[in-house]
Structures are given as C-alpha cells and as structure tokens.
C-alpha cells in the first residue's frame, strides 16, 4: 500500500472516470440504470414531457415542488421580465466576433453576466434562486443577440412561453404550436440528469463556496465536449455527411470497423437505452411528417437499427434531438447552446443544493509517477 493513500481510499479500487461511484447525494433527479427511467423530484419524465411546461419543470427543479396556478404564473412572469440583458452584457456583445464558437461565446457571456449581478456577493438560497431565474431567462437572450450580431436581436415576446420565445428569438419567426411543443419537450428532457459531467463540474466549483456564475461557467465548458453536450451537433453533421438512407449501412460499418465512435449512441449510465430518446424520437418523426421531410428521421432510424445489431448500443437523447432541431430551422452550431438553455435549470438547482448542504468535493488520485528523485541544479541537467 502506498504511503500517500490514507483515510478511506483503497488503491486497489481506482474508478477511472468515476464510473459507478456515488459521489454525493441529491434529491433533484433519479436515473434508473437498469431500465433507463428518469424522475425529476419524484415525477416521471414521461408525464412531465407530455403534460408540463418548461416553466413548470424549472420551478419544480428549483423549488422542489410543482407550482400551483398562482405560483406558476408569478414564476413565468418573473422569467419573462428578466429576459432583457443588463448593460454590461450588451457592451460585451459588441466586442464578440460573429464567427466565434457559440459555446465559447456562452461560456464567456455567462461569466460576464456574473460581473454585475446584483446578488453576486451571496451564495444564500434566496440570492441563488434569483440568480438562477435571471440565468434561465437571459441565456436565450444572449444567444439571440449573438445570432443576430452585428444587428439588433428581435425583442422577446412576453406573450410567448419560454420555449416558443426561444424559437422566435433564434429563427425570427413566431413558431406554430407543434414546433413550440417540440421545443418545450426538448427543453424538459434536457433539463436535468443527476451527476453528468457538466453538473458535476458545476457542483465541484460550487463546493469551494464559489458562486453560481462561476459554477455555471464551469458547467458550460464541460458540456461543450462531444462526449457530452457537443454530441447533438456532431450527430447532425454526421447525418448531413451521410446524405441519405442508402449510404447509412456502409458509412456506419466503415466507421465502426475503424473503431470510431458514432455520436448520439451510448451512455455511461444507461446501457439498456434512454427513455428520453424514445420520447424525442416520437416528436422527431411527427415533425418530419408535418414538415413533409422524413429524410432525416428515416436515416436516423436506419442508423439506430444498425447500431443495435452491430454493437448493442442505443441512441441517447442527443441522437433524435439533432434532426428535430434541424427541422425546426435552427442552425446546427446552436444545438449544444440549446442544451445550455435547458440544463441551466438543473445546474442551478444543483448549485443551490450544493451550497445548502456543502462539503468540499476533493477526491484522491492514485499517483503513478516517479518519487524521491534527486534534485539536480539546472547546470547539471542534460
Ligand atoms: N460508438 C461506437 N462505440 C461506442 C460508442 C459509440 N457512440 N459508445 C461506446 N462505444 C463502445 C466503446 O468503443 C467501447 O467498446 P470496446 O469495449 O470494444 O472498447 C464500449 O462501447 C464501452 O464504451 P465506454 O467508452 O467504456 O463507455 P463510456 O461509458 O465511457 O462512454 C460515452 C459513454 C462517452 C457517452 C460513449 O458512449 C460515447 O462516446 N458516445 C458518443 C458521444 C455521445 O453521444 N455523447 C452524449 C452522451 S449523452 C448526453 O450528454 C446527453
């Protein structure tokens, strides 16, 4: 046993990637490993996706209970009222290149929002809640401003729901009810998934008693990678590269033979499939029907079949979300930022939970390098 490892750590059990480790406790979300089931604060995701609004789900995640009519309307009004960007963010926007990566932009812009947030000095529950509401409201406004740069973004429409307004901001058109429903469902499905990489990054940052904006900035950085939130963009790029269903078998076969990963498949926890994927798949198909463009859905289904047959791998949430966003007329490079627009609700609930019951997150690492080397003065080094 190494002298370096003491209290509680077992050098024979190193959990690479923290796989299978219970790294804390949370009352926000339950992921059922064996059947892919998902519950937010005890409510089944199927019920929330079909019957709730994103505003209701965000309230549920932040407050721990479903709102009554009065609470929901006050919360929705506060979100709508908080949409305009503060002056510092507007100034920052003028300095950003329109060719920047939208995730890099968001990571920096959220950090900017923290500079003059009126509650920046406190991590108390009520201040954190106000910060969370502002972030949920303002991230879509940031994206809209970036999308329309250097021109003026369309102003938010206070009569539209969060989901419909988001589509309006990004496409410049008021969405039809079914398109707004697809966006609503997508925001609900992406909202929360316990200790995924970005949420864990947010909690690690918050655990040093750093603030909400720092934690969310860490989370956005983590989400950007293609093994996590970046997968939805990578899926659509792949679908476009394949071009049509007739090329699917050959393309996927070749990539698997080269041991390459197919984006939108597999999951660290959900090895038997993901209930969220089944839900968004249904909406992606109906959207294809309504838009009279089934090409991307049919191609995606063929890839799903092939992946199951060849690798016993199932699509994750990102796979069918990609073609749904495409049919909604959203630019591909905004797919991962749309994930941010939703997951900000889960991240902020986790930051609040971390601050409310804090213990610094500081695991150990099994050292594999050399030890006790003689220190050579620089003139003696080869
Ligand atoms: N395509 C091809 N093979 C895959 C894929 C994939 N997408 N995912 C896993 N595998 C294979 C691995 O190559 C490995 O095979 P091997 O045992 O022959 O080497 C086996 O399945 C196990 O893979 P691991 O890497 O151990 O699985 P892990 O739990 O670490 O990976 C991950 C999970 C990172 C999500 C992985 O499945 C992946 O890279 N998927 C593609 C990226 C993606 O879609 N990310 C989105 C995740 S969901 C979300 O963020 C909402």
Short descriptors:
382 residues, Cytochrome p450-Terp, domain 2, mainly alpha, binds acetyl coenzyme *A, Citrate Synthase, domain 1, 2% strand, single chain, 3 strands, 55% helix, three-stranded antiparallel β-sheet, globular, 2 domains
> Would you list the SSEs in sequence order as H and E?
EEEHHHHHHHHHHHHHHHH
Main sheet: strands, sense, barrel: 3 strands, antiparallel
The assembly state of the depicted protein chains is single chain
Shape: globular
CATH topology of the largest domain: Citrate Synthase, domain 1
Share of helix, binned: 55-70%
Q: What is the fourth-level CATH superfamily of the largest domain?
A: Citrate Synthase, domain 1
Number of separate domains: 2
CATH class of the largest domain: Mainly Alpha
Number of strands: 3
Distance between the termini: 34 Å
Q: Report Rg.
A: 22 Å
The portion of residues forming beta strands comes to under 5%
- Strand pairing plus helix content: what structural class? mainly alpha
């Amino acid at each position: 046993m190494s002298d370096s490892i003491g209290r509680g750590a077992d050098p024979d059990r190193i959990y690479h990637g923290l796989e299978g480790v219970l790294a804390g406790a949370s009352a926000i979300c339950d992921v059922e490993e064996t059947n892919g089931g998902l519950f937010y604060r005890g409510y089944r995701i199927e019920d929330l996706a079909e019957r709730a609004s994103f505003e209701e789900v965000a309230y549920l995640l932040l407050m721990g209970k479903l709102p009554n009519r009065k609470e929901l309307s006050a919360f929705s009004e506060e979100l709508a009222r908080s949409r305009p960007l503060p002056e510092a963010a507007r100034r920052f926007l003028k300095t950003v290149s329109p060719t920047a990566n939208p995730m890099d932009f968001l990571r920096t812009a959220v950090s900017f929002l923290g500079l003059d947030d009126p509650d920046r000095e406190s991590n108390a529950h009520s201040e954190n809640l106000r910060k969370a509401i502002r972030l949920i409201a303002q991230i879509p406004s940031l994206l809209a401003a970036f999308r329309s740069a250097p021109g003026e973004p369309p102003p938010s429409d206070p009569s539209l729901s969060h989901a419909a307004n988001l589509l309006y901001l990004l496409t410049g058109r008021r969405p039809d009810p079914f398109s707004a429903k697809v966006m609503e469902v997508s925001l609900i499905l992406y909202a929360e998934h316990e200790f995924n990489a970005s949420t864990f990054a947010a909690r690690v940052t918050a655990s040093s008693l750093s603030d909400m904006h720092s934690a969310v900035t860490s989370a956005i950085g983590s989400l950007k990678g293609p093994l996590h939130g970046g997968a939805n963009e990578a899926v659509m790029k792949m679908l476009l590269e394949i071009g049509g269903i007739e090329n699917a078998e050959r393309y996927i076969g070749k990539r698997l033979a080269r041991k390459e990963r197919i984006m939108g498949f597999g999951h660290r926890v959900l090895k038997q499939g993901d209930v969220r994927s089944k839900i968004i798949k249904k909406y992606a198909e109906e959207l294809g029907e309504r838009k009279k463009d089934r090409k991307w859905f049919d191609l995606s289904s063929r890839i799903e079949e092939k992946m199951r047959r060849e690798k016993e791998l199932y699509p994750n949430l990102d796979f069918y979300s990609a073609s749904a966003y495409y049919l909604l007329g959203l630019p591909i490079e905004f797919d991962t930022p749309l994930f941010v627009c939703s997951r900000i609700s889960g991240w902020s609930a986790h930051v609040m939970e971390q601050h409310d019951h804090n213990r610094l997150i500081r695991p150990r690492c099994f050292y594999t390098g050399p030890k006790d080397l003689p220190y050579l003065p620089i003139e003696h080094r080869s």
